[in-house]
């Protein structure tokens, strides 16, 4: 990342550290201001059935709508929040906003069986998470199988002793788990045994790799990798979602490789719930069906 290196690309440690720390402090202040002033919003990106292009669910993505600076992208302040502990408060807010959205969606006949997937950070997996989820789901009268928790390989790697049993407890409530950004972390296959998930989300870097000239070495490798992930997932009875689909050619390739579900700018960006509910952008399915997100409940 260029912005962390000094003049002429030379990295001057003290300078970098100083700027990084200053930036962190600034981000930290913005986060607390945002929490105080309700600047955080959850926007919703459609997750679609690739063949019919109908929306089967939504991923909730955090947005900090700053009155002066506009919409700030989440990656930077989420990392800062993870380091300062602010992620717990943000996580609670995201859960609350996600469940409110589900409640509103479910009140519309056309969205009655849709689900919402929310991103969870490692720090949120505390002993009281299952009870907290159960309580909030019931307060909003949401059936747990309409909530998906997205976690990354990095979260699994943090090797939190209690993580496997927390995942198990939450799956026993009826919520499903999706392994986000799959293929970009360490992708240790043993995680797939230790941490049962329901869905694998192929990272967008693989999907953009499909743009390479057909027959080129990179294109062939990308195809092989996606096919391997799809094959493995099918054998393990996991759903597959392709992330970051931007064009028709990528879509065609993915369908050909047996991927059934995806999301990306080709279908829609993350938008405020009101926009989704107004029905102008997200396509609504003709026949609603929730894919069987769960492997088993036992
Ligand atoms: P993610 O969970 O992998 O989310 C997908 C990201 O890809 C989103 O970026 C989304 O806007 C973007 N995206 C979707 N379709 C396309 C496409 O076709 N092309 C391109 N170029 N990008 C696409 P976003 O919203 O900036 O989020 C970035 C990351 O921030 C997320 O990655 C997730 O790791 C994290 N994040 C977002 N919201 C939350 C949250 O509520 N809690 C936590 N803990 N993390 C969050
Ligand atoms: Mg995600
Ligand atoms: Mg992702
Ligand atoms: Mg990603």
TrEMBL record:
It comes from the Eukaryota. Residues 24-284 form the EAL domain. This is Diguanylate cyclase. It comes from Effrenium voratum. The lineage of its organism: Eukaryota, Sar, Alveolata, Dinophyceae, Suessiales.
């Amino acid at each position: 990342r260029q912005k962390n290196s000094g003049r002429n690309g030379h990295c001057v440690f003290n300078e970098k550290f100083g700027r990084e720390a200053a930036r962190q402090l600034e981000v930290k202040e913005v986060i607390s201001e945002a929490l105080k002033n309700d600047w955080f919003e959850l926007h919703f990106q459609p997750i679609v059935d690739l063949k019919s292009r109908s929306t089967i669910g939504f991923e909730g993505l955090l947005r900090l709508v700053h009155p002066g600076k506009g919409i700030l992208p989440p990656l930077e302040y989420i990392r800062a929040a993870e380091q300062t502990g602010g992620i717990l408060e943000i996580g609670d807010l995201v859960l609350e906003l996600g469940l409110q959205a589900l409640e509103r969606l479910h009140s519309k006949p056309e969205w009655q069986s849709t689900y919402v997937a929310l991103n969870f950070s490692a720090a949120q997996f505390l002993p009281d998470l299952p009870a907290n989820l159960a309580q909030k789901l019931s307060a909003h009268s949401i059936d747990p199988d309409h909530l998906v928790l997205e976690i990354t390989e990095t979260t699994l790697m943090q090797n939190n002793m209690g993580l496997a049993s927390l995942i198990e407890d939450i799956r026993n409530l009826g919520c499903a788990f999706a392994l986000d950004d799959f293929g970009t972390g360490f992708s240790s296959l043993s995680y797939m045994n230790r941490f049962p998930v329901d869905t694998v989300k192929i990272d967008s870097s693989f999907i953009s790799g499909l743009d390479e000239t057909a027959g080129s070495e990179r294109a062939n490798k990308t195809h092989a990798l996606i096919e391997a992930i799809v094959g493995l997932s099918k054998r393990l009875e996991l759903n597959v979602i392709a992330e970051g689909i931007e064009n028709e050619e990528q879509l065609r390739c993915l369908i050909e490789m047996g991927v059934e579900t995806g999301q990306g700018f080709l279908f829609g960006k993350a938008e405020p719930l009101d926009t989704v509910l107004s029905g102008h952008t997200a396509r609504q399915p003709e026949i609603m069906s929730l894919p069987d997100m769960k492997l088993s409940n036992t």
